[in-house]
Design goal:
The protein is built from eight helices and eight strands. The strands form two sheets. Strands 1-2-4-3-5-6 form a six-stranded mixed β-sheet, sandwiched between helices. The chain has a two-stranded parallel sheet with strand order 7-8. The protein is α/β, with parallel strands linked by helices. 37% of the residues lie in helices and 23% in strands. It has two domains: 31 residues; 213 residues, 3-Layer(aba) Sandwich (Rossmann fold).
Amino acid sequence: MKYVLVTLLSLVLNVGLIANTNAQDLKSEENAGKNNIEQRDTFSYNGMTLQYMLVLPADYSRIDRPWPMILFLHGGSGRGQNLDLVKSYGPPLIAEEQKDFPFVVLAPQCPEEETWTTKADILAALLDDVIKKYKIDPDRVYLTGTSMGGNGTWHLVARHPGYFAAVAPMAASPEIPDIWNKRFISMPIWAFHGDQDTICPLTDDEAMINALRAQGASPRFTVLHGKGHYIGKEAYENRDLYDWFLETTRQH
């Protein structure tokens, strides 16, 4: 009799455990495709290290296809060791808030007291690593950044243009190259700048745009009238930017 009671008790517990597991699995299936996937990691290359955030679309694991990706370079206020700083605005924040945002977003963090213009090689290596590990379409990788990140955008595309389908630097003070890469000249570029910017004057981006046009390029240049340096929030909420990204693929 005691054996029978123990057996019955064991059966009841197992049934309850299976029911609970099935309920959890059902809940997971119901949530699939509803929430984006945020991953954080550290990458090292040639004696340098960057930590980064990767935001995957809500349907990333459910849809088996390569995804377009945006590499976002934050401004100076995003430097440090707190990765939450890199999603205070721009594509990482939009990807978090908009579950139908159709891009993977790669957002590395620049260490304190350093700048993106010294990180071109590790950023290129990071792109190689992420493209290899994740379902990324290498012909639809886009680059953007504002302020210090805008400078980094200009610098990275000038040094490694072969990675990108299109770039969108914002509020930058770029250095005009001494030697022009043909793929840089032919790159689809859409730059943004506020005409009241006192930190990175409008004339700095104008000089780069004019230099590109002198080389035969056709960059787009949007001047935000009445706006100062901090244009990231407004510019990155412009849906036309992302539609323009999706219209472009890497040139071979």
